Amino acid sequence: MATIRTSGSKALKGKDLITIGIFSAIYFIINFIIMISSGLSPVIWILMPGIIALLTGVPFMIMVSKVQKTGAVFVMGIITGLLYFLTGQFTLVILITFVVSCLIAEIIRFVTNYRSYLGNMLAFVFFSLGMIGSPLPIWLFRDSFFAQIKEQGMSADYVANLEAVSSTGMLIVLIVAPIIGAVIGGIITKVLFNKHFQKAGIV
Amino acid sequence: MFENKEKTLVFDPRAEIIFLILANIAAFTQRSIYVEVGLIALLIIMLVYAKCYKASVKWIILFGITLMLQYYILPYGPKFIRDTFSFLVFYVRKIFPCLIVGTLIVKTTEVRYFVLALRKWHLPEQIIIPLSVTMRYFPSIKEETGHIRDAMKLRKVKGVAKLECYLVPLMISATNTAEELSAAAVTRGIENPVRKTSVVNIHFYIQDYICLALIIISVIGAVVFK
């Protein structure tokens, strides 16, 4: 198969950008399906970053193994953010957590020289932590948050339910879940890499 | 190729992106049902104007169903169902305006017009290229998962194995698509650093301004009427 090898420079080239685009599409679809189903129950919403991390490990890890250059994770984060913005789910808090987590992920990849499996997995842990920005406002601006969603016409039952579920203990669950999810997601990817992808010659 | 040059678009893609942002703001600030219905009606009229008749009927029916569910069915249902679905229904209704504008964009705007719009706004190429690939790739994912589902039915795959059977072929086809698409794009000069020219052009026309004004009015309505 003819692969396009441009010079060994570390800037993102056409092929890298296309690869990032395609895997961002898969990442976003999985992410979005889980995001929508999190409407079923407040508990799912709080566990959401963890569930997303568990299921998106494969596209993320393949993407970083194919694009071993600075900025790949950052561009993926920006695209996910822009698409969320268009679907009306984006808040300032997500923006901040996303930017911070993508930056940390990029630094880890830079330090581990982009090739290390463990380094990529660690980067994925931080990338996944970016999603905690979605339920985080419950704890950050507790009173005004509940006042606001009540005002927007959310059913009183749901608000009461959410208030009951969102204890300080759950905040720890919110932060720990993506870490565990990302590690398991990374291990699943490793298994699949050995079982399928190396044989198929795509990594 | 050249007949497209003379084709006039229904809306300028830049106007459509602004519609989307404004519809978003209106949807998340409004608290009055009249403003909401007004906004939805306006957006559906725009959809009809863009000749998306099937999609318009679909959105009208779906919106009717969610309204019915929220006001006439769910409040009288058993507590468990009410707890589980009231937020989902509420939430889906909130993002309805975005979904309708989204349909409008997908049905009426080819990706190259969209790319042109983003270039006119001077977004960096490092964002425009992956973003346009992402948007183009969504239908492919749908198609691909359809094929995978059919194949799984034939082989009676069950349980957790299903997830693996979805992910692996999807990843492999994604990787192959990335290879092929890059080969095509590089041949067509995607890596050429000069400023790209375009065979098509976009302009704001009277309909863009009218719809913009109407949507701005509904945003004001959303802020004023509580």
From TrEMBL, chain A:
InterPro entries: CHP02185_IM
Keyword Membrane annotated: yes
Span of the signal peptide: none
One Pfam family recorded for the sequence: Trep_Strep
Transmembrane helix in keyword set: yes
Keyword terms, alphabetized: Membrane, Transmembrane, Transmembrane helix
Domain of life: Bacteria
The name this protein goes by in its record: MptD family putative ECF transporter S component
Lineage, uppermost ranks: Bacteria, Bacillati, Bacillota, Clostridia, Lachnospirales
Automatic annotation (TrEMBL), chain B:
InterPro entries: ABC/ECF_trnsptr_transmembrane, ECF_transporter_component
One GO cellular component term noted in the UniProt record for this chain: plasma membrane
CDD domains: EcfT
Claim: Electron transport is one of the keywords in the record: no
Transmembrane segments: 33-50, 57-73, 85-106, 204-225
UniProt keywords, alphabetically: Cell membrane, Membrane, Transmembrane, Transmembrane helix
Topology within the bilayer: Multi-pass membrane protein
Keyword Cell membrane among UniProt keywords: yes
Domain of life, per lineage: Bacteria
Major subcellular location class: membrane
Location relative to the cell: Membrane
Protein name: Energy-coupling factor transporter transmembrane protein EcfT
Source species: Vallitalea guaymasensis
